[in-house]
Amino acid sequence: MAKFALLIGVSEYSEGLRPISSAILDVEAMRRVLEHPDMGAFDQVTVLPNPDKGSMEKAVDDLFADRQKDDLVLLYFSGHGLKAQNARFFLSTRETGRDQNGDFRRATALAASKLQEYITDSRSQRQIIILDCCFSGALVQGMPIKGELNIQEELGGKGRAILTSSSPIEYSFESEDNDLSIYTKYLVEGIETGAADKDGDQLISVNELHEYASERVKEAAPAMTPKFYLSLEGEDTIYLAKSPLAATNPIFIYREKVREILDEWSKENICKENFNRVERNCLNELRNELDLSLQEADIIEQENLAPFRKRLQNLTEYKATFRELLADSISITEGNRRRLKELQSRYGLRDEDIQVIEEEVQNEVYPITPTIPPSTSPSAKIAQILHSIKTLKPKNFKLNLPVSIGIASIAFVSLFAIYRHNIIPPLVPSNCPKQTGDFISEGEEVLNYSQSFNKKKGAEYFAQCDYQKALLRFKDAWQQDRLDAETLIYLNNALLEATKKPYYTIAVAVSIPKNQNDFNDDDGDSRAKEMLRGVAQLQTKINLGLLNDNDPFLKYFPDQNFINKKAINGKGLKVVITNDENDELLAKKTASSLSQRPEILGVVGHYPSEMTVATVDIYNQNNLVLISPGSTTSELTKYPRKNFLRTVFSSEQQSPAIAKFLQEKSIKKVVGFYSEGSPFSESFFNSFKTIFTSPPFSGTVVKLDEFDLGNNFDEKEAIQELRRQKEGKITETIGLVLFPKAIGDAQGDAIRLIKLNNSQNWVIGSWGLRSSRTLEQIDNLQPFQKFVIAVPWDSLNSPNQDFLKDAKILWTTTSVNAITALSYDATLALTKALEKANTPTRINIHEQLKSLDFLVTKGATGTIQFDENGDRKKIDENGEPQNPSVEFVHIVECRTLSSDFAFVPIKYPTAKDAGLSCLNSPKKPSP
């Protein structure tokens, strides 16, 4: 008898199917326990990561061929399981994708019917099939399915056990922390710890393993129901692995007691983080009897409590999300209800869980109002107290003298307390330790990926309000990484607290991608850092103005030679950072939290128009000014919000310059590509189309409807369609305009399209394409010869050289992005309003910014003034038209340590003409 296993993990797919990061980790974990001589003891384990269909089918054939009757054969698959319209089941491969209609090419996936042939033809009578995949993963909502998927019918057979992570209509859940998928996690745990050995016979049967994993999965996600199909004769079973623990082993006995308690929790639908006093005392007594160490017992308890804690976390997150939606509106929109249903599925919550949560939140948000209208006057409050006493007395109750005196005393004491509260403010309780985990930080938590030791220790000290120690740690972290603006902001905040200097508080809202390794979001992290640099530069300049030349705290800043250091009316500036992770729900949640903090007088952000549109009304309802350095969508001024302003020029303001550029190239027809549904992208395209098709340009704009940047975009078909637009019109010159959204891979689609165009047509891209990611994807400059990017500002043409000199001091470089400059200007406008207001409040700050005489003349990008809609005016310090709305840059060769290319204004033909310092070394080889 021999034991053979094939472990297939598919994490990468063609367009239309999302990657599954856990799949490769899953197969490696399964390999570890199956190969281990004291666990699975398999003779041969083959791992197949990200195969194409041919490789997968051959590996499956090899697994089941030439086996003996007593051989144990195991096939494990982690990846997307797909359902065809006829309800037939397929295993995906790396070649499998999904088109715009939600369908997939059958030729790229392995059909269950084909898999069944290989399994049935095998002589082995002991076969295990484990499918950790979502059978509805490729099913588009509304697609008709003829019949239900039946896994047992498709793959079942004599001598065969089939284990699936979910039923044919459920999600199969991945971990949120780049760990194993939830089902595989507990399969591995059951074998590795021996916990799946239910009867203590030191053998783990396939039945026991599935039962263990299934129970644990349902504890974490009750709506997920793993399935098990077994077809064996009599009482036979298949033993998969050995267990190191016999039934008499103390660890086995203690684990069984823990499981007994938790099984009761499951039956009674209890979800909590830890054992109650009775349960704890019982476990402590058993631990002492068994002579187990505290560490041994704790390991067992933590392993078994983990799924309950995960479920509690999911319940809490759903509740917070629903409360936020209900607080915004008394009714839930159809779109939000659909997204809540998706969230429920992903969290594995049952309908009954949701019903309890939503009823509870509705009662909290919209409680039954008292019969007496509330009043803020002391006399009215006393009346309410007396009314309460009167209405609570029993029937036939009579007031005697002592009772009357008692009631009068209550009323007097209450009245005194109320008047005292109005005259003497109550003591403010300590806010230490500070809250963490809410995506908001003034120093108590690190939000970006820079997690140096000193920075993390500084955050720990800051959270405990030990500002002096936090200051020392943040100083060391800042000296180690002079480009980390988050550290510099926290250093400033710690300085203000340690020195007890007076200060104003503002917030900056950035979008740091959730996953550092997500290629589609690598620009998001860069944009967040650039925004923070602009804010941190001005904050440092202001706070240095609080310190005299002999101040001992100056030593915490490596360089203090800023130009025109100046505090705000003798006060410093504290900056609170919030991260929305490019997630609209999270953005709304953090916006609501910021709005409830009265010390915050204004917000700089957001950069993506999507996040700004999602949050602007929340800030508006709380009179909190929002100044965006990056949101160009006309939606924000077409339907003006009184609290919204921006330092970047809107899409309507930038479009004439783009139209003029095309006119100068004798281009009368333009094909446009954008990201449908994106406030930024659609707005920019529509604004440009309106301008370009009207006098004096009177051009034509064509939108190819089937091509959507960031959504199953096919650049090859797009180029073919573009060439068809020119057929029969040899003399016609066609231009391309690209407005990809800032989220996801829309910008990657745009770059691939530019490459295929190969400089046959002039291409103009929007600001987001001016990024390091664009440069990283260039290996040959030829396709980019006719490509320019419309940017709002470029450091090589900056009107404010003092800003660049300060940047050189602070960041040790003058290579400053427009996001940094515009964020600096947004912060500058906000601080100027603070300065002009005698006693700054949210309302008078807004009034200052919108007043006709508000003017900032020393902005990084020029003069700053806003019109009645919050758009930036194009004037100089004398009120004359001055600021250009667009600067055009192109790509030139310039080899540096990080890239072979650079962006410069189009007036500079080469890097040398632009004054850039480039290396003379040969071009780096392509990877």
Describe the structure.
With 927 residues, this protein is α/β, with parallel strands linked by helices. Helices cover 42% and strands 13% of the residues. It contains 28 helices and 26 strands.
Q: What is the fold's blueprint, element by element?
A:
Blueprint: E1 3-9, H1 22-35, E2 44-49, H2 53-64, E3 72-78, E4 81-83, E5 89-91, E6 110-111, H3 112-121, E7 126-132, H4 151-155, E8 160-164, H5 182-193, E9 203-205, H6 206-220, E10 227-231, E11 239-242, H7 250-267, H8 277-290, H9 294-328, H10 334-347, H11 351-365, H12 378-392, H13 401-423, E12 440-441, H14 453-463, H15 467-480, H16 485-499, E13 503-510, H17 522-544, E14 572-579, H18 584-595, E15 600-604, H19 609-621, E16 625-628, H20 635-638, E17 644-646, H21 651-664, E18 669-674, H22 679-692, E19 700-703, H23 715-726, E20 734-739, H24 746-757, E21 763-765, H25 772-776, E22 787-791, H26 801-811, H27 818-836, H28 842-850, E23 856-859, E24 862-864, E25 887-893, E26 901-905
Parallel strand pairs: 1-2, 1-3, 3-7, 7-8, 13-14, 13-15, 15-16, 16-17, 18-19, 18-20, 20-21, 21-22
Antiparallel strand pairs: 4-5, 5-6, 8-10, 9-11, 12-14, 22-25, 23-24, 25-26
Helix pairs in contact: 1-5, 2-3, 5-6, 6-9, 7-8, 7-9, 9-10, 9-11, 12-13, 14-15, 15-16, 16-17, 17-27, 18-19, 21-22, 23-24, 27-28
